[in-house]
Amino acid sequence: MSLVPDNLNYTEEHEWLKFGKKDGLARVGITDYAQDSLSDVVFVELPEVGDQFTRGDIMAVAESVKAASDIYAPISGKIVSINEKLEESPELVNESPYEFGWMVLIEPEGEVNGLLDAASYRESID
Amino acid sequence: MADFAGWEMPILYNGIIAEHKAVRERVGIFDVSHMGQIFITGPDTVAFLSYVTTWDMKRQKDSDCRYCHILDNDGRIIDDIIAYTFTSEEYMVIPNAATIDTILSWLLENSGDFDVHIKNLSNDYFCIALQGPEAPRLLGQHLNTSVKPFRLARERNTIVSGTGYTGEEGCEIIGPSEEVKGHWESLVDMGAEPVGLGARDTLRLEKGYLLSGQDFDGTQTTLETNYSWVIDWDHEFIGKPALISQKNRTYAKLKGIMLDERGVLRPGLPVFYNGNEISSLTSGSMSPTIRKGIGLAYLNLPINSRVTVEVRGNHLNGHVVRLPFL
After folding, report:
1. Where residue B277 sits, what CATH number does that domain have?
2. What's the pTM value of the predicted model, to 2 decimals?
3. Are strands B193-194 and B28-31 parallel, antiparallel or unpaired?
4. Residues 6+ apart with CB under 8 A from B5
5. Which DSSP state fits A79?
6. Domain hosting residue B32, numbered range
7. Interval B158-217: pLDDT, tens
8. Do B45 and B139 belong to one domain?
9. Same domain, yes or no, for B41 and B141?
10. CB within 8 Å: A64 and B266
């Protein structure tokens, strides 16, 4: 049973987003379900601060021992920060997918829509 | 689960890294029943197997196991096998799953001048590998036996050999298919950690062991794989003339590449030297032990040469290393 916290938004590509109440910035990572299917993450390739993405672009890559998995931009916007700890400790993605294993902080551009709430995401992985 | 030569096989049970460490530090158990068992019997068994492999089986004593190659007429590897010597008139050959039929036809095709009987019993036998520093203890508890590296013990239909594909101490147990469950469950109960194909690949790659169909695919010779130690030059065998003529030329050999920066290597990635693409990886992964990207490639470069491997458009720095990695 995968953990799906109620207070986050999700995509069907198994990313989670958490919007900052004040700054509106979106913290993004992959879900518990995603980290579990990937198994041991041994390398995470992150974008650079300042990179611009359109929703659906390949934004990052998480590599397990067995395979590389693309991670798509869940919304359009600009990367304002990345989780540099993942360079030394990619296993944080497995150990703490919703907290220490976050990947990027995005400044959203344009209207944000099409995201799932926790209930809908739970249904999608059932 | 993954399809492997028609067998449904698990990539992992518990996590590739955990399984890998279990084998290096304790003991892991692998169901490798997909591997073949071809029995060769008759008065010409030794002469025949010496002719169709790179090894002179006259050098085998009863109960010896020998790793060697079966070559085509051009010296190219059809498969790598382990030959089990029961007696000079009874051998068992273990080919890889995907090449059982090819090897069987090749043996039959070349057996015309020899008084031998060739029988494929691959579907009748299981094979379980028990690997890791604690493997000998578990084998003792389980079957009340022990076996030295590259030696075998047989009791009725059950064969235990000091062989494996991980570079660790351990054995492989071969027996009638219907008995596999009993062996598996009792060894798991004793603490052997089930290991899937994922860790099987990282374990063998750290030791520089060849993966049939990937590190050789029917187009490379034993010399090119850098496995000349499996050749006994003092006997006649299929492919020998081609190897002798290759010996005098320069050719690319299978070598290791280790990344100097973070990244994971994968089979098929292009390798560059001085900005020119010179080869591609036949195997690649992240070494769970060394925690670096490692791979194999056919290279005409000396050890320590600086190379780059292109991963998603980025050139990652690495260097050529002597095998094994570990």
Report:
1. 2.40.30.110
2. 0.94
3. parallel
4. B34, B96, B97, B98
5. E
6. 2-206
7. 999 999 999 999 999 999 999 999 999 999 999 999 999 999 999 999 999 999 999 999
8. yes
9. yes
10. no
Q: E strand or H helix at A26, and its extent?
A: strand A26-30
Q: Which residues of B touch A (CB under 8 A)?
A: 11-12, 15-18, 20, 198-199, 202, 262-264, 266, 285-286, 288, 291, 293, 312
Quote the strand ranges of chain B, DSSP E: 2-4, 7-9, 28-31, 38-41, 65-71, 77-87, 90-94, 117-120, 125-131, 152-155, 158-161, 170-176, 193-194, 253-259, 270-273, 276-286, 293-299, 306-311, 314-321
Please, what's the largest Cα pairwise distance for chain B?
59
Q: How far is CA A105 from CA A15, A25, A46, B127, in A?
A: 13, 7, 11, 50
Query: Is the Cβ of A45 closer than 8 Å to some Cβ of chain B?
Result: yes
Give CA separation, B235 vs B51, B206, B249, in Å.
Answer: 8, 32, 22
> Is residue B258 located within the same domain as residue B159?
no
Q: How many domains does chain B have?
A: 2
| B133 neighbors B185 (Cβ within 8 angstroms) | no
Residues B285 and B200 in one domain: no
**Domain A9-124 class in CATH:** mainly beta
Chain A: nearest CA to B3, how far in angstroms?
A: 15
- What residue segments make up the domains of chain A, in order of their start? 9-124
Residue B78 backbone phi and psi in degrees, to 5: -85, -40
Same domain membership, residue B172 and residue B36: yes
Q: ipTM score of the complex?
A: 0.85
Q: How far apart are CA B222 and CA B127, in angstroms?
A: 26
* Interface contact A43-B264, CB threshold 8 A: yes
User: Does residue B55 sit in the same domain as residue B160?
Assistant: yes
